[in-house]
Specification:
Layout (H helix, E strand, L loop, with lengths): L1 H22 L4 E4 L2 E4 L2 E2 L5 E2 L2 E2 L6 E3 L26 H17 L4 E5 L26 H17 L2 E8 L9 H18 L4 E7 L18 H9 L8 E3 L1 E4 L5 H6 L3 E4 L6 H12 L9 E6 L10 H7 L3 E4 L26 H14 L5
Parallel strand pairs: 6-7, 6-14, 7-8, 8-9, 9-10, 11-12, 12-13, 13-14
Antiparallel strand pairs: 1-2, 2-3, 4-5
Helix pairs in contact: 2-3
């Protein structure tokens, strides 16, 4: 009888362990204007120069972690300097292997996109980099690379801002029906994998001035896709969702009213007053309530200065995201996180300055 009870207890414990592992260990929530991970606010009790850091997401734009170029005519233009070949698997492996390093400095969030971002920094190329097929179905190779990233983020207790659509790639989706199908299939896949450390960004920089091909991705309609995600629930759980706007662009009321959090971009904000003005105007939009604001793309640095776009965002309790690409005249692979091929380590002076600054701000994390 005792042996049977012991066997039962063992099987029960094993079942609980399997369920726990299958469900992932990292859950992101929003309470008021704070982000929580596994029931606790991020950076618990942390202040820096009297600024509250608890509850924020200090993040970086790392959108090319699952990048590939499916256009054979252009793929070789992204070749690594040492091998003279482009290698999507290597790119993904090096991304994943560096995540624990970023995290050790205090980075608790990053953005990665199913359709990437401009692989040349700014401006589009003729590359085809889409995790969606023309009908909106999911590309298995992209999902495999994404799964490796999300699994490691889950282990590290990091939050992932997962972008779905990019204005340099949405044209490869056949029509609006395909856009809707892609959104639904992505949510289905996340439910199946049971990842709960995800914030969904429907589109990178929603715009109607010719950037996006499909009107449902324009600012006046993108709330339809936000609501689509919000309506999808499984076992009482749904994914938190929003969308970003172009640099220094104030979110529209329909997006503010439907989003769980607001994504703004500081690109173009060469003066900190511009970031301050963007934040203030965002908080004045009809529909704004107590909710998190994340500046998850800002290509201004000046980390050695007392005041910069990062510190200005923190002053207004807005999370900040580092956007680094190879600047004009830079050719060394160590520069930039968006320009492909990418060195995912921390080797350039600009990257070192960012990570040292966030370590100072957050206190970093134990490896």
């Amino acid at each position: 009888m005792l042996k049977m009870k012991s066997l039962y207890v063992f099987k029960l414990a094993l079942t609980i362990l399997v369920i726990f592992n299958a469900s992932g260990q990292t859950v992101v929530e929003i309470k008021g204007n704070q982000f929580y991970i596994n029931g606790s606010p991020t950076y618990p009790n942390r202040y820096w120069k009297k600024l509250k850091i608890e509850g924020l997401l200090i993040n970086s734009r790392m959108v090319q972690g699952i990048f590939d170029d499916l256009n054979p005519e252009t793929a070789q233009s992204f070749a690594y300097p040492d091998t003279k070949k482009w290698d999507a698997k290597r790119n993904n492996q090096e991304f994943v292997s560096n995540m624990s390093l970023w995290h050790s400095y205090g980075l608790n969030c990053f953005t990665i996109n199913m359709q990437g971002g401009s692989p040349t920094g700014y401006g589009n190329s003729k590359c085809i980099n889409s995790g969606f097929n023309q009908d909106g179905s999911l590309n298995a190779d992209y999902l495999d690379r994404l799964d490796k990233v999300l699994k490691e983020a889950d282990r590290l207790k990091m939050v992932v801002i997962l972008g779905l659509f990019y204005f340099g790639q949405d044209q490869y989706l056949h029509d609006e029906k395909a856009v809707i199908n892609a959104t639904n299939q992505m949510v289905d896949w996340l439910f199946k994998k049971k990842y709960r450390n995800i914030l969904l960004e429907i589109a990178n920089e929603t715009s109607e001035n010719g950037s996006y091909d499909h009107p449902i991705l324009y600012p006046n309609r993108i709330h339809e896709l936000i609501n689509l995600v919000k309506e999808r629930k499984k076992n009482g759980y749904r994914y938190l969702v929003g969308t970003s706007f172009r640099g220094l662009t104030v979110p529209t009321s329909n997006v503010v009213k439907t989003s769980d959090f607001l994504l703004i971009h500081g690109n173009g904000g060469s003066k900190t007053e511009q970031i301050q003005d963007l934040i203030n105007k965002t908080m004045e939009v009809d529909g704004f309530r107590v909710m998190p604001i994340i500046n998850n793309e800002d290509d201004h640095f000046d980390f050695e200065k007392e005041t910069n776009n990062l510190t200005t965002s923190l002053k207004y309790y807005v999370s900040w995201g580092y956007f680094d690409y190879r600047l004009r005249g830079e050719t060394n692979i160590i520069e930039g996180y968006q320009t492909v091929p990418v060195d995912w380590g921390i080797h350039s002076e600009r990257k070192k300055a960012f990570f040292e600054k966030i370590k100072e701000i957050t206190g970093g994390f134990q490896k």
